[in-house]
Write a structure and sequence with these properties.
Oligomer: homodimer
Order of helices and strands of chain A: EHHEHEHEEEEEEEHHHEEHEEH
CATH architecture of the largest domain in chain A: 3-Layer(aba) Sandwich
Distance between the termini of chain A: 34 Å
CATH topology of the largest domain in chain A: Aspartate Aminotransferase, domain 2
Strand order of the largest sheet of chain A: 2-10-9-8-5-3-4
Largest sheet of chain A: 7 strands, mixed
Chain lengths: 357, 357
């Protein structure tokens, strides 16, 4: 299984240890004679899993005590709604930055709840960059951003400093680099890129900023209810939480977020250096806004596509076809992707160039 | 592993084939060199899983074409809200039957959206029965019921016939017995009892009844959006859907719902016969309303508790402690529980009686 270079944009590559550990727990958990997936979520064995997962998030991101950690369901798509219910007051307004598909969906859901305004957008530039963001004042309840765009391959290099709460959908780059959590009132992230398999979504919330939206909130969307129930308001997604816990353990053992950030930087440098050097390819996103997670690029001559596709497939590379909305190629280099996989892709790009010169 | 008699109330026992198949797919799916949990949900391998799962639901419940099948997230708890958004109109009202904890939660969430009235309740009887339900007319948008109560051990033996839509939370008895789906506008059910592991929730909806609530609906709660996207509006919970698909395959191979209903009836008969026969025990729920899924019972003399607990634990029995709200014992006998496990429990009950007589 180790021979496939898995560049899938998400759900995506997970470390072999995580996959093995997850399969083992499905067979039997902790030698208790039962599978992980057939025991009560309130059994001591699973409560320990949930506790460890939440604690690992605290450790890996150096969370101050006032932050709470939740593992819920519904992905970022439900997170868009949850965000607005918990932070957007009936008389208030929220500022949103539109950097592409998911950011736009976030605005739509927020507008269901209250007043959401787009204060900056990269739409006219085809979302090839992170737009200039005007200063957002305390007349807004929050500023919402999407830290990384998987489709266009853009990523914030630094975060805005509004005079209101900052909220971030970090689904595609959480745990990939160091962040200062205290800059954020709320971070949420679907697990299925850097944190684990599909089926759970992480919330990291500043409890001092919570509970001020002054509106009724449906129970499942009420973060205060989930905090009170320690992520067990209803039956949690047992397997996705377990596998995420294993992934967080793996990250801790590796040296934590600081160490993975170095590795991710090396992978991105290797990839983008080749895209810029190779005469046959051109990068899609603007250089200053390129994502370390998802490198998007095109062949200058599309006629070489069939040959290139055959070559990378023969090299055991999988999942680099670009999103249907922009075409070309996308190399997703999430936490678990080894640099050897990036090297394999780079080698194929070099080989194509030497065949054509 | 086969020696444990797993009576867990949910998440609960799954067939060994399902557990083995799920563990195998986590290790590697279909010989593709990748794990189930690290491939795109839009890859042909996973799309085939989702399609098969939905198709198996259709087959097992003989769904007419106008019904659609969805695998979503958030459990029944989010289903309470989804139900009201999709079926409760701004000027309308919904009728609810309160048969305990979950039914009550359903009312609460519906009241967030619109007007929900409790038309029948078993609360004053300690939820030991399914109450008489008055005829519900077409002046209601729908009548909502909860087919089985896991805590109190009650279950509908037949369903009401209102002159409005009938909606049912079948989380704890779906696929356990034959039903006429055409009686229902909507059925929803968390997977983690009879259908699979925790982390996905099934919706079966009559599309001719859908889209008439005449109110804006947040995207994740809009069943029409999920239908249009074939359960792929956002990243689905890949592993829970896969394991549910295996469980549905297992049920089909076994002979389908008709066959499992016979087996479930045999288990329930064996269990309740002993509860009624044994001089040391008394059933909790009223006999006419007893659940085939969850048998609740007490020791007449609580002083025998420690001895009984020691005996069933020694017999390899797990998970029969009653819910904290009513105490006593609860034997959950979901689809995957072998009758041999019920026999093992019955044997221990007999043994206790013979020791005491």
């Amino acid at each position: 299984m180790s021979k496939i270079h898995n560049f899938s944009a998400g759900p995506c590559i997970l470390p072999p240890q995580v996959i093995e550990g997850a399969a083992d727990a499905v067979t039997e958990l902790n030698g208790i004679g039962l599978s992980l997936i057939e025991i009560s979520h309130r059994s001591k064995d699973f409560v320990a899993v949930m506790d460890e997962a939440r604690q690992l998030v605290r450790e890996l991101l150096n969370l101050p005590d006032r932050y709470e950690v939740l593992f819920l369901q519904g992905g970022a798509s439900l997170g868009f709604l949850t965000t607005a219910y918990n932070f957007l007051s009936p008389d208030g307004k929220a500022a949103y930055v539109n950097t592409g598909t998911w950011a736009k969906s976030a605005v739509k859901e927020a507008n269901f709840v209250g007043k959401a305004e787009v204060v900056a957008s990269s739409e006219t530039e085809g979302n090839k960059l992170i737009p200039e963001i005007p200063h957002v004042g305390s007349d807004y309840d929050y500023l919402h951003i999407t830290s990384n765009n998987t489709i266009y391959g853009t990523q914030y290099k630094s975060f805005p400093k509004p005079d209101c709460n900052l909220i971030c959908d970090m689904s595609s780059d959480i745990f990939s680099k160091e962040i200062n959590v205290e800059d954020f009132a709320l971070i949420y992230a679907g697990a299925q890129k850097n944190m684990g398999p599909a089926g759970t979504v992480l919330y990291i919330v500043d409890t001092e900023k919570l509970g001020k939206s002054n509106r009724p909130i449906p129970s499942y969307l009420d973060l205060q209810i989930h905090i009170k129930k320690e992520s067990m308001f209803n039956t949690p997604p047992v397997f996705p939480v377990y596998a995420s816990m294993l992934m967080l353990r793996w990250l801790k053992d590796l040296g934590g977020v600081k160490e993975i950030a170095t590795l991710n930087r090396q992978k991105a440098d290797l990839m983008y250096s080749e895209i810029d050097r190779n005469s046959l390819f051109v990068g899609h996103a603007e250089a200053a806004h390129r994502s370390d997670m998802n490198a998007t690029f095109m062949l200058k001559d599309e006629n070489l596509g069939a040959e290139f596709d055959e070559m990378w497939k023969a090299a055991g590379i999988s999942g680099i076809k670009g999103h249907r909305s922009i075409g070309g190629y996308r190399a997703s280099m999430y936490n678990a992707l080894p640099i050897a996989s990036v090297q394999a892709l780079v080698d194929v790009m070099k080989e194509l160039e030497s065949k054509k010169s």
